[in-house]
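Human:
Take a look at this sequence-structure pair and walk me through the C-alpha cells.
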Amino acid sequence: MAAKVRNLRVSQIQADEVRRFVGCKQRRKRPEHDPTWGDTWTYVALDPVSKLVVNVTIGDRNPRTTGVFIEGQAQAVNGTFQITTDGFAAYRSAILTTLGHRVHFAQLVKVYRATPEGERRYSPAEVVSTEVVPGCGMPNPELICTSHVERSNLSLRLGAKRFARLTSAFSKSFRNHCAAVMLWYCWYNFGRVHKTLRVTPAMQAGISDHVSTVRELLEAA
C-alpha cells in the first residue's frame, strides 16, 4: 500500500477509527503486562467514490497517532479535497496543521441516546441527532458524511476474525495485530472485488489493472 497508494487525485475522504484490544482489555491491564497491550485503535481513511482505503494507522487514540494518520493522508493524496471526520478533537489540530491549505474540512458529530437499563452490552447505541462542525475551507454540505467509512468498518469486523466481539480470537501481539490488519486492508484494496463496482477499489482508482491474490500481496511486501 505504501508503494501503490500515493499521489492520488480524490474529491473527498472520510475518516474514522475502529477500536479493538491486544492481549487484554484496557481496564484489565496490569503493570506486569506488555506495554503494547490494551485498547488499540485502527484509523481508516476511505475514498467513498472508488471505495479505496487510502491510509491506515494503528495505535492509541491520541493526538500523536492522529497526527501520524493525517501525515499519511498528506503523502497519499495530491491536490485539494474535502475531508469529513467524526467529532474526535485531535483531528482539528492535526488537519489544520498538516492539510489546512489543501482541504475543505468538517466534522460530523453524532449524539447518542443513553443506553437503557438492561440493554445488551454490544447492541449499537441509537443516534438521536447529528451536528456539523466546520473546520476550514468551504466544505460541500452534501459531501459531509462518514457512512461509507463506517460501512467499511463493518467489512473489517466481518472479514478479520481479530475484530470479532465476544470471542477469544483477539490479537495477543501488537506486531502480529498490525501485520494482520494491514494484510486485510491490502486484500480489501487489491484483491477483493466490490459488489457494486464489480472491480477492486484499486482498479477503480486506477492504480491496479487486475485482481491480486493473497500470495501476490505477500510476495510484493
Q: What stands out?
A: The mean pLDDT is 92.
